[in-house]
Amino acid sequence: MRNLKLTVAYDGTDYHGWQSQPGVPTVQGTLEEILGRILDQPIRVHGSGRTDAGVHAHGQIANFTAEMTMDLDALDRGVNALLPSDIRVLAVEEVRLDFHARKSARSKRYEYHVWTSPVVSPFHTRYVHPVGHQLDVEAVDLATALFIGRHDFTSFSATSAKAEDRVRSVLEARWDRGQDEWVFRIQADGFLQYMVRTIVGTLIEVGRGRIAAGDISAMFEAADRAAAGPSAPAKGLHMVSVEY
Q1: pLDDT value for 21
Q2: Residue 52 catalytic?
Q3: 11, 14, 52, 152: which is the annotated catalytic residue?
Q4: With contact defined as beta carbons under 8 Å apart, do 206 and 187 qualify?
Q5: Cβ atoms of 43 and 32 closer than 8 Å
Q6: Tell me, what DSSP letter sits at residue 30?
Q7: Above 90 in pLDDT, residue 113?
């Protein structure tokens, strides 16, 4: 029995998220089907996190166990030969049997891409959220800094989220800005459903002057989804990497 760790990249546009669901295309389901065909056995792939429909990944981590003797380079080539072009396995490596992509993770990094120019390039439109105008830099940065640290993120997660403990530690939160695009970068010890998208949606409202930067603290205290701003669309969200 071997435990294999996969680094996976995908364009999430045409998938109903990571998690396998009957009757619809998912990233996990696609990987399991291809790996099962190659290894001639049922395969269960465990991901580091469940990205939602339309969310992209540059460095999603997954693992699976199987009885196999196949060379890892051959497995990598075979999987990529059969996968659709919008999913790619970037690396395959053997790890200890006690490694688990989700349970062993120490932190994760996400990016959210906001397009501030009036016209979105056709080469970016699947991967950015267009707001079409500049935002208040100072106000956004003041509000962004308030997310760093350990907080109850109930107000910034889906009301249907299954996690009972919604306290998370944000290690980094900042923006990189170009002429056309703002990129929000965040690292935390874990993320709740819609957490990054709701943080970004709220920060965009701050940048538009509809929410005051100082209101963020009150949103944490409210522990109520209705207290925060809207969730930004899925297509601007990118899972970047996982640290172990």
Answers
A1: 93
A2: yes
A3: 52
A4: no
A5: yes
A6: H
A7: yes
